[in-house]
Amino acid sequence: MVQLGQENFANAKLIASAKGGVAGDLIEAHKWFNLAASKGHEDAPHCRCEIAEEMTPREIAEAQRRARAWLLERSALNG
Fold first, then answer.
1. Which of 11-25, 36-50, 58-72 bottoms out in mean pLDDT, i.e. has the lowest?
2. Are 29 and 51 within 8 A, CB to CB?
3. How far apart are alpha carbons 29 and 68 in whole angstroms?
């Protein structure tokens, strides 16, 4: 489970570093930090909070929705 958290964190860092002020990138980065945090990555909650400061409540809600959808899709694929 920790490995998956590391992979999610790496995805989020990559997306966040390339954000260029684009809201969609912040949403995706928040999603991946959220997933990493749910898998126990220690730095993910802090990073998620940092980018959340640049997001609207609607964008945060969308990121959370995408994270839940990703988890549901993954669990459906795994049976």
1. 11-25
2. yes
3. 14
For 14-35, give one letter per residue: b (16+ CB within 10 A) or e. Answer: ebbeebeeeeebbbbbbbbbbb
Residue 53 DSSP symbol = T
Q: How far apart are CA 39 and CA 57, in angstroms?
A: 24
Both tokens assigned to 14 = 């990559």
Look at residue 1 and tell me whether its pLDDT is greater than 50.
Answer: no
Helix 23-38 / helix 44-52 crossing angle, nearest 10 deg? 150
Please name the helix (run of DSSP H) or strand (run of DSSP E) that holds residue 27, with its range, or none.
Answer: helix 23-38
- Tokens coding 79: 């049976």
- pLDDT tens for 15-43 read 766 555 555 588 999 999 999 999 898 99
